[in-house]
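Weekly sync, protein design subgroup
Attendees: M.S., D.O., the rotation student, P.L. (late)

Item 1: inverse folding check
M.S. brought a backbone from last month's batch and wanted to see whether the design step gives back something sensible before we order anything. D.O. pointed out we never logged the input encoding, so this time it goes straight into the notes. Structure tokens as presented (386 positions):
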């Protein structure tokens, strides 16, 4: 928290209070029925959470990435789905802010800042999310327009998004394929079908859907930044923020699991003493606390590196890899500490256990993170030797 300004620290406290007072008391109700949390989203809009990465001149709150990570963590501590509701939106605000044309910034950022326009990002296709070079969604030039054809799947917030940051191929002949990709800013309309919710293990309340583009016509000016074929580089920068966001979500879920386990271990007794005094349970708590502290520090370190203007793909990947695996383990250990009650809907730990795996898979699986990390370790090592 030390790198945060006093205003940013106030922001994090505001979110923590919102979570404790408004979210935690009602989360089981929203979760159980898989209801979109409209009321909470409206409150989040008013509190400025959708404008965290939007510059003040466009109406945003404009906090550092480190503050954004802490806010995300707090939201996920209450309910990971709420952090998910600002995830893709924040990546697209970051992209429009840094790479958008002045017109795109003027058209979108003020409405993204107040949450009246919510965005999502669409990369994954039914045939694969890891191998993006093999994507089959095309935006072909026709006069002053682009005609979009193809499908995306697992797109979070798709039914509530008024703006889709679509990664697609705008030059079919480019080799390698990423040299012919663009991010196209698509507003839903004729030619786009959004499916119903894909049923899922956790991350309930917020929908994930398939998008089908059938010769959808958009103006060529919808390409992010106005110049086609730069989308891969743009999206890779955006994913640095996205991976920090996912790491922070994992820290929030893991912290909630630790908090609940800690509390339960002090009140539940066996053999005449609180269970934390049995060395096996105490050791579990010690490991859980250590993992979550390390995960938070790695996440903030990646965020600070990005804020300093440095390349942060390796650090963001490491934070996402470590924090998500830690959160999964901590969620499982929280179930252990709760014994049979850990398996019951009466306690929140079963939800953490269902929510944690998403951070292992989302924003690039952890296997893909390892590939990115290894490649960067080698590249930086070789650079150091030149
Ligand atoms: C709830 C939810 C919400 C999501 N929201 C979004 C969203 O808003 N926008 C979006 O674009 N996507 C979203 N996704 C999709 C997510 O990013 C992908 O699921 C993920 O990138 C993996 O792609 P895949 O599912 O096609 O798996 P695949 O790419 O088919 O991979 C399957 C397995 O093979 C492994 N693998 C593949 N290639 C390699 C390799 N080269 N080296 C090592 N291992 C490899 C993977 O790690 C994985 O274990 C979401 C997913 C979920 C579950």
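Designed sequence read out in the meeting:
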């Amino acid at each position: 928290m030390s790198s945060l300004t006093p205003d940013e620290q106030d922001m994090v406290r505001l979110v923590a209070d919102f979570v404790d007072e408004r979210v935690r008391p009602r989360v089981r109700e929203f979760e159980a029925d898989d209801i979109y949390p409209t009321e909470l989203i409206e409150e989040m809009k008013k509190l400025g959470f959708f404008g965290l990465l939007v510059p003040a001149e466009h109406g945003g709150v404009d906090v550092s990435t480190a503050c954004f990570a802490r806010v995300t963590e707090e939201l996920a501590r209450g309910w990971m789905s709420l952090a998910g509701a600002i995830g893709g939106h924040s990546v697209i605000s970051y992209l429009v802010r840094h790479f958008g044309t002045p017109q795109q910034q003027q058209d979108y950022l003020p409405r993204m800042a107040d949450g009246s326009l919510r965005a999502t990002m669409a990369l994954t296709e039914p045939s694969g999310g890891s191998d993006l070079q093999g994507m089959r969604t095309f935006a072909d030039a026709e006069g002053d327009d682009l005609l979009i054809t193809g499908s995306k799947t697992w797109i979070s917030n798709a039914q509530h998004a008024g703006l889709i940051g679509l990664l697609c191929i705008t030059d079919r002949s480019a080799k390698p394929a990423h040299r012919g990709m663009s991010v196209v800013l698509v507003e839903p309309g004729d030619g786009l079908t959004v499916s119903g919710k894909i049923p899922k293990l956790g991350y309930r309340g917020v929908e994930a859907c398939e998008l089908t583009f059938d010769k959808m016509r958009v103006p060529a000016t919808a390409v992010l930044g106005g110049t086609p074929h730069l989308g891969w580089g743009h999206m890779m920068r955006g994913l640095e923020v996205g991976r920090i966001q996912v790491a922070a979500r994992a820290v929030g879920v893991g912290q909630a699991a630790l908090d609940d386990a800690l509390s339960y271990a002090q009140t539940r007794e066996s053999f005449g003493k609180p269970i934390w005094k049995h060395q096996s349970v105490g050791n579990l708590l010690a490991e859980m606390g250590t993992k979550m502290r390390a995960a938070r520090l790695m996440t903030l370190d990646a965020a600070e590196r990005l804020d300093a203007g440095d390349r942060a793909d390796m650090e963001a990947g490491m934070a996402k890899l470590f924090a998500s695996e830690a959160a999964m383990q901590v969620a499982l250990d929280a179930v252990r500490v709760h014994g049979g009650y850990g398996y019951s809907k009466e306690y929140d730990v079963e939800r953490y256990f269902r929510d944690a795996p998403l951070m292992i898979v989302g924003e690039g699986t952890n296997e893909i993170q390892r590939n990115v990390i290894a490649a960067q370790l080698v590249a930086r090592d070789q650079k150091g030797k030149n």
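Discussion: The chain has a mean pLDDT of 97. Residues 231-267 form the longest helix (37 residues).
Action: P.L. to compare against the previous round before Friday.
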